[in-house]
Design brief:
Elements: H1 2-8, E1 11-14, H2 19-23, E2 35-40, E3 44-48, H3 52-78, H4 82-86, H5 102-115, H6 117-122, H7 132-152, H8 173-185, H9 193-197, H10 215-228, E4 232-238, E5 249-257, E6 264-271, E7 275-282, E8 290-292, E9 296-302, E10 308-316, E11 319-325, E12 328-331, E13 333-342, E14 348-357, E15 362-364, E16 366-367, E17 370-371, E18 378-384, H11 392-400, H12 405-415, E19 421-427, E20 432-435, H13 445-451, H14 454-463, E21 467-469, E22 496-499, E23 502-505, H15 535-549, H16 555-563, H17 568-582, E24 588-589, E25 596-597, H18 601-607, H19 619-629, E26 636-638, E27 650-652, H20 657-672, E28 685-689, E29 692-695, E30 709-714, E31 719-726, E32 728-733, E33 741-746, H21 761-767, E34 772-773, H22 778-782, E35 788-792
Parallel strand pairs: 3-6, 10-21, 28-31
Antiparallel strand pairs: 1-35, 2-3, 2-35, 4-5, 4-23, 5-31, 5-32, 6-7, 7-8, 8-9, 9-19, 10-11, 10-18, 11-12, 13-14, 15-18, 16-17, 19-20, 20-22, 24-25, 26-27, 28-29, 30-31, 32-33, 33-34
GO molecular function: hydrolase activity, acting on carbon-nitrogen (but not peptide) bonds, in linear amides
Protein name: Penicillin amidase
InterPro entries: Ntn_hydrolases_N, Penicillin_amidase_A-knob, Penicillin_amidase_dom1, Penicillin_amidase_N_B-knob, S45
């Protein structure tokens, strides 16, 4: 059916074509086509056009064919219409914000839409607004999406999720930019969407404000909220001194949800002789966010930089909507927002909410579960560094055209639009780059100390989240002459390092991007220095140093390093755990419910190779044990030493009674549910696709596994259902040949449509430990055994 539909579009489809036509190596070969799409193995489209409008058209058409329901759901969300179709309850779209339900989501996005901020940004010329080529891509994308929808018809959509649904509609360019704005701000106002929506003026009885003693709780809330945002990644760039070929080699390994709209979609975009880039883009954004061209490869990892901050403002006596700055009163803005809600009986009603704002941003009644209340005496306001950012589209356009890591650094600095991520890159010449040039509020350590509220001064050193005194205009965010936007650090003030051995990041700060050349000092808002690294960062550093100590990395050894699935936590603690197990008196482990026979647990852990592969025995049990002790204090005998950050802490505190009891409780859980301690990981860690369970290798990032897989544990079924982890993975090497050596895997596959042949094909390939051969050059594309060519006119 899907292949038949492709032939119905205003196009000519050819399943067998000449190599020249398949490669589209010149503009003449495009003929009168708006775009030519060459599909290779696993449904990967290589889109060629004469101009950016045509390129966007091809991307929009192909992306809609694979993922029309997911895309339509995104546009429903950012147009603030979820409640009108689905009711006020349910879960708001987690890909676009952390709103807890549809009503909160709609009120959040309607406030943004009514404010006109996106239209104002679009009215600005580049670099503040989209550059001309980006505007052409966007216009073409919208036209291509709408062309697919018109040609198919809502009633004939193959995906049962939205076939015939009244919420599937054509889109506008404003929908496109609203989507990007949501992505850009998801790490700031998007994190606090429900808190912002639910903030109301104070009653006559004040709610006690959080004091400095609340700093640990709010810090935990911040970490948990960032965690539920489901953002993480590994990026490893090896330079020419560390590769066998002498050219650069890159691993890009973002960890993203396996369901929903925050997913990657793989493609190649080509204008012959002018533009040629391939990689994974967040679905609906026609530029690779993680990708490569013929000379450069790059990836991103979520940064530790906090891209937002709070301000506490004193209120005028007797008027809770007037606040004081430098002793002078300023009236809060009041913005009434209305959204439509569908009731269970089908009737519709309007819900109105009034948002109040200050010169700093929207008034916020709580943050991460801790009261920052709007009292009769003061209020707190949220300022989001990405509230004025559409520049990221320009950033990814310029990254696509880079020819060296120096070009990458220049593009990041020139656009200053990357919203909440680091950049790791390498190039043909063998350079490796780490950069945290992105949107970062200009809050120096000195400003946080001088202007922080009591809670802010207690919170900032541990988290980087600032709460500043809004009563003094001098306490607003600072600025640098080199910054594109007031209130942000200039690129020259942010971490950047290029070397010939390696640079990497696994969601820790810039400090140990290279263990041989620490980056310090850092502004605290950017990240910490001299602090404990995650076990995943430690594994990345150790594994990379091991690769350099050998004969040099190759693309093959880099792929093996990822799929090996070694756990740094297990390397540090599994042997100690096995010895603890063997030493329990009478072979009985203590547990909450009483002694539990250890059985074969000790031998299983002693023989386990510390990996999370399908045939690993003991991995699941160890994971559940570590999950129990993860929140405990004093689990290591050797504490963290900043002079030995890669090897400390270490040595499990097996004498800790809580550690011993956690082991017994894990045993009891396995026994009660009939789960074998020595069961194969692949028999218990799976993902369900079309009713079939597919075994999945990989393990938790918290256990120092690079090939991150996050699963929901159901002990009654003895199963881990995968929900998150490695997503679009690329290994790109430059070895002197014209065409880079590329291998990729999109773990959850290209399409969300259960009827598509590409709904789970790469998922099964990933399960088998396989990779997709990258086909970047025209001749490679032409040689694909599954080549299909579609011409859009």
């Amino acid at each position: 059916m899907r292949g038949f539909q492709r032939g119905l579009v205003l196009l000519t489809a050819a399943l067998a074509v000449s190599s020249a036509t398949a490669g589209v190596s010149s503009a003449d070969e495009l003929g009168r086509s708006q775009a030519v799409i060459r599909y290779t193995e696993y449904g990967i489209p290589h889109i060629a056009a004469k101009d950016f409008d045509g390129l966007g058209y091809g991307y929009g058409f192909a992306a809609a064919e694979d993922n029309i329901c997911e895309l339509a759901n995104t546009y429903l969300t950012v147009s603030a219409r979820r409640s009108a179709y689905f009711g006020a309850g349910g879960r708001g779209d987690p890909a676009m914000s952390e709103a807890e339900n549809n009503l909160d989501s709609d009120l959040h996005f309607q406030r943004i839409n009514d404010s006109g901020v996106i239209e104002r940004l679009l009215a600005r010329p580049a670099p503040h607004g989209p550059r001309a080529e980006v505007r052409e891509l966007a216009a073409g994308y919208v036209a291509g999406y709408n062309a697919y929808l018109k040609q198919t018809g809502v009633q004939r959509i193959t995906d049962p999720v939205c076939r015939g649904a009244d919420w599937v509609r054509p889109i506008t360019e404003l929908d496109f930019y609203r989507h990007f704005y949501a992505v850009s701000s998801v790490g700031g106002q998007g994190l606090l969407a429900s808190d912002l929506v639910r903030t109301q003026p104070p009653s006559t009885k004040d709610v006690p404000a959080a004091g400095p003693e609340s700093a640990p709780k709010i810090a935990d809330g911040l970490r948990e909220t960032m965690k539920t945002g489901e953002l993480g990644s590994n990026g490893i760039a090896v330079g020419g001194d560390g590769t066998k070929s002498g050219g650069g080699l890159l691993l890009g390994n973002p960890h993203y949800p396996w369901q929903g709209g925050r997913r990657f979609w793989q493609s190649q975009l080509t204008i012959p002789g002018r533009f040629d880039v391939a990689g994974g883009s967040l679905l609906g954004l026609p530029l690779p966010q993680i990708g490569h061209n013929a000379d450069v490869a790059w990836t991103h990892t979520v940064s530790t930089a906090i891209t937002f901050g709070l301000f506490e403002v004193p209120l005028a006596p007797g008027d809770p909507t007037t606040y004081l700055v430098d002793g002078k009163p300023e009236k809060m803005t009041a913005q009434e927002v209305k959204v439509e809600v569908r009731e269970p009986n089908g009737e519709r009603r309007q819900v109105a909410r009034t948002f109040h704002g200050t010169r700093y941003g929207q008034v916020l009644g709580s943050a991460f579960g801790v009261p920052t209340p709007w009292t009769t005496k003061s209020a707190h306001a949220l300022r989001d560094g990405n509230a004025g950012n559409l520049r990221g589209l320009n950033a990814w356009f310029e990254l696509a055209g880079s020819r060296s890591t120096t070009d990458v650094a220049d593009a990041l600095a020139r656009t200053q639009g990357v919203p909440w991520v680091n950049t790791i890159a390498t190039d043909r010449a063998g350079n490796a780059l780490y950069s945290d040039i992105q949107v970062v509020p200009h809050v120096t350590d000195e400003r946080a100390a001088d202007c922080g509220t009591p809670l802010g001064r207690a919170l900032f050193p541990g988290t980087g989240l600032s709460i500043l005194d809004g009563s003094r205009s001098s306490c607003d965010w600072g600025s640098d002459p080199g910054s594109l936007e007031p209130g942000l650090f200039a690129p020259s003030r942010l971490p950047l390092q290029q070397r010939r051995d390696y640079e990497l990041n696994a969601n820790d700060s810039a400090w140990l991007s290279n263990a041989r050349a620490p980056i310090a000092p850092l502004p605290r808002i950017v990240g910490s220095t001299g602090t404990q690294r995650s076990d995943r960062t430690r594994e990345a550093l150790i594994a990379t140093e091991e690769g350099l100590a050998g004969k040099g990395f190759t693309p093959s050894s880099m792929k093996d390093m990822l799929y090996r699935g070694r756990s740094r936590t297990a390397a540090l603690a599994a042997a100690d755990t096995a010895k603890m197990c063997a030493a329990f008196p009478g072979g009985q482990a203590p547990s909450t419910s009483g002694p539990v026979p250890v059985g074969n647990a000790c031998a299983t852990l002693a023989s386990w190779d510390h990996t999370f592969r399908l045939d690993s025995r003991g991995a699941l049990f160890f994971e559940r044990f570590v999950d129990r002790i993860g929140g405990l204090r004093g689990i290591w005998q050797v504490p963290f030493d900043p002079n030995r950050p890669v090897t400390t802490p270490n040595t499990l505190a097996t004498g800790n009674p809580d550690v011993r009891k956690a082991f017994g409780d894990t045993l009891a859980e396995f026994r009660a549910n009939g789960i074998p301690v020595d069961g194969r990981l692949g028999d218990h860690q799976t993902v369900t696709r079309a009713g079939k369970r597919i075994p999945i290798h990989g393990g938790p990032g918290d256990l120092g596994v690079l090939n991150v897989i996050t699963a929901l544990w159901d002990p009654a079924r003895g199963n881990h259902e995968v929900v998150h982890g490695s997503s679009y993975v690329q290994v790109v090497g430059f070895d002197g040949k014209a065409c880079p050596d590329v291998s990729t895997i999109l773990t959850y596959s290209q399409s969300t449509d259960v009827t598509s042949p590409h709904f789970a094909d790469q998922t099964r390939l990933y399960s088998r430990g396989g990779w997709v051969r990258g086909r970047f050059c025209a001749a490679d594309i032409a040689r694909s055994p599954e080549l299909k060519v579609v011409r859009l006119r």
